[in-house]
Each structure stands twice: as structure tokens, then as C-alpha cells.
Amino acid sequence: MVHDLLAFEYERFGSILHAEHRLHSPATVLDHSERALCIENIFRGFSFSEHHADAMLAFPQFLPTLLTLLTNYPLEHRKNALVILSNVAGKLMFSRVGDLEVVLAVLTDCILNQVDADRTYTYFPFPVSNNLARLLAQFPGNPAAAHQAHQQAINGYTYFNWDPFYFSSNALEILVQLSLLIDNRGVLARASLPIISELVRKLALVVTEELEDLDDVDVAEMGLVVLSNLSDLTDTLRLLIASQPGLIRSLVRFALFPVLITVRDEATRRQNSNIMRFAAQALLGISRSREVQVILKDYEPTLFEATCDQTHQPPFAPLLAEVLYNTSKISQPS
């Protein structure tokens, strides 16, 4: 029954999304938009059920429909698409690099650090907009909407100016799930350098800024997970991560010292442990690159002292010892 309902809704949804006459009058546009939102809400509801989400993912129309909503339609449609994506991201496997690049560009555009969030309501340009605009211009959807979105992007408007932290947190959760899937890692490794570079830059910003409250700690933890997963892929990505200003310093700090000094409960202790582990894993990942080993030489004394300190040894000292082993392969410059 669910399969039949999904098939019916996809058929109706496709006719609404691609009806040529929807641009002819404001009334027609509004009517189609409201009908599309109703169907999206059905899909959104299905996505919260694991069984129904599997049925949605089985449809070949699912990913193209989701990409269309993420890129070519107004905010309410994009919000629905982002919620649906966050619910199915743990099972969503990409076979085409181009599809993943569209998702990465949109998610990267969502990620805001505190400085960007403070500027959000003044509509300063976001550097990723050019990448997103280029992708939108090529996206096979409504030409008028794509053109409008393209103009909006190159004029410096981010797509998610309205509620930055809501979208930023969702985007990071989706990136964590997508990057954890082994089947997606090969596609991630082939993503275009401009898009992946902007993603790493945004992740570095949320990891290196000051952590003022528990929400900041949650964001930093998710950023560390994604960086750790990316550090396992290629030497190009490892060097890209290591080249971000202040990022290695932050990784070392997170790996050695608890972020939450006042440990109130088991959840806080677990979060401290997670942050230290993911930071250590990211350091280990990037230390596999010979070029990064040279950069990490400056941190050898700090890491060595911490791993040898029997009194205050960090919980993931074995990972840091592997980092030291990798950096020891590089002779110290004279």
C-alpha cells in the first residue's frame, strides 16, 4: 500500500513540479506551490519511519526530486527537502559525483560559524555562492527558477539567510551521516576541488571558533566527525585540512584537553570523550600524508609530552602515538 501511495504521489508531484503553465500567473504559481507542499509533507512524514524511508529510497525519482527541491524552489520547499534529507542521509548512497556535488554545495552554503551568522541579516556575500550558482545554472529543472536562483546567488544572497542556526545544524548532521557511509566515500574523494575546499573551510571555521555554550560544542563535535572521515580519503584532502588556519592547533587542543571542564553527568563525559577521540582520529588521518607530516613536526614536543605523561595521559594516547610514529618518518630539518 505504501509503495502504491508513493508511486501515486511521485507521479502527481512530478506533474506539479514540471507543469509549464505554473509560471503563467501568480494564482497558478500559488496553487501549485500549496499542492506541492502538501505532497512534500507526506514525503516528510514518511521519512521519519525507517520502513517508509526505505520505500522512498527505492524509487529512482527520489534523488532527482530531492535535488530539484533543494536547488530550484522557494524556502519552504527547501526546508522540507532538508528535513527529508536529514532523515534518510544515513542510507542515501550516491552513484554519481555530480549529484553529491549539488548536495555538498547546498549543505556547505548552510553551514555558518558565529561570524557569518552575525552578518547574515546584513546580506553580505558568502563565498560558496559562486559554486552554488554555477551548479544551479546547470541543474535540469525549471529554467526561470534556476535563473532567478543563479542571479540571487551571484548577488551574494545565501539561500538560508532566514534561520541560520537551524539549517547549519541540520546540514552538519547530514554531512556526518553521508560521510560515515563507506559507499559514499569513493564518490566524496572524487568531488570537485572548489566544492570540497569550501566545505573544509566552513568545517574548519566551526571547529576553530570559541566554544561559548553547549550548542557550540555540539556543532564542533559534528564538524570534527566530518573532518575525521574526510581525512581518511586522499592526500589532497589531508593537506587541505592541514592548511586551514588554526585548525591543527585546535585539533591538538581538543585531542589533549576536555572541552567541558565541569563534568556534570554521563552525557557530558561522553561528549568530552567523543570530541577528544574524533580530534585524535583527524590528526591521525592527516598524518598519513607526507606533506602534512612536515607540518605536524612543530607539534611533536606537545604530543610527546602528553602521551608520556602517566598522570594526565589523554584517553586516546595510542592514536596520538601513531601520529608521532608517522611524523618520525620525516627527518628534522637542519
Explained architecture:
This protein is an all-alpha fold and 334 residues long. The protein has a domain at 2-230. It is built from 19 helices and no strands.
What is the general shape? elongated
Radius of gyration based on Cα positions: 22 Å
Distance between the termini: 73 Å
- Which class do the helix and strand fractions yield? mainly alpha
The tally of beta strands, per DSSP, is: 0
| Mean of pLDDT | 76
What pattern of helices and strands is seen along the backbone? HHHHHHHHHHHHHHHHHHH
- Spans of 5+ residues with little confidence (pLDDT < 50)? 118-131, 138-162
- Can you give the helix content as a percent range? over 70%
List the helices and strands and how they pair.
Layout: H1 2-17, H2 26-47, H3 50-57, H4 62-72, H5 75-88, H6 97-110, H7 114-119, H8 129-138, H9 143-154, H10 164-180, H11 182-189, H12 193-208, H13 214-230, H14 235-242, H15 247-256, H16 266-286, H17 290-296, H18 300-308, H19 317-327
Give a quick precis of the structure.
With 334 residues, the protein is mainly alpha-helical. It contains 19 helices and no strands.
List keywords for this structure.
19 helices; 0% strand; 334 residues; mainly alpha; elongated
